[in-house]
Design brief:
Number of helices: 3
Strand content: 15-25%
Order of helices and strands: EHEHEH
Number of strands: 3
């Protein structure tokens, strides 16, 4: 019987066209992973995938929805933790993310 996949944390922000934002998010994800012992992936809701990969050390920015789709394709029974990194009220958390998750469930 195959071993279940470990829980994965997706640390996500709203997204930005500024490379520095994605680089900073990645640093936070690495630090969080070191503290928790869980894999933590840095992803954004929108926009960041338009940052040229060359500005991100050659590694393209990832968006939450495609990252979740890829994870659940590889691990259909996988467990994820969604950890938003927002500083203030956001319709992204109350409207956008729940709608996207509902879409992924179907």
């Amino acid at each position: 019987m195959p071993e279940p996949s470990p829980a994965v944390c997706f640390l996500f922000d709203n997204g930005s066209l500024r490379a520095e934002s994605t680089v900073s998010l990645r640093r936070m994800a690495l630090a969080l992973s070191a503290q928790t012992g869980l894999p933590v992936q840095a992803v954004s809701l929108l926009h960041s995938s338009n940052v040229p990969p060359e500005a991100l050390g050659g590694e393209p920015a990832r968006l939450l929805e495609p990252a979740l789709m890829a994870h659940f394709k590889a691990f259909p029974d996988g467990e994820v933790v969604l950890l938003p990194l927002f500083f203030g009220p956001s319709a992204a958390l109350t409207d956008y993310v729940p709608a996207r998750l509902a879409s992924l469930r179907t």
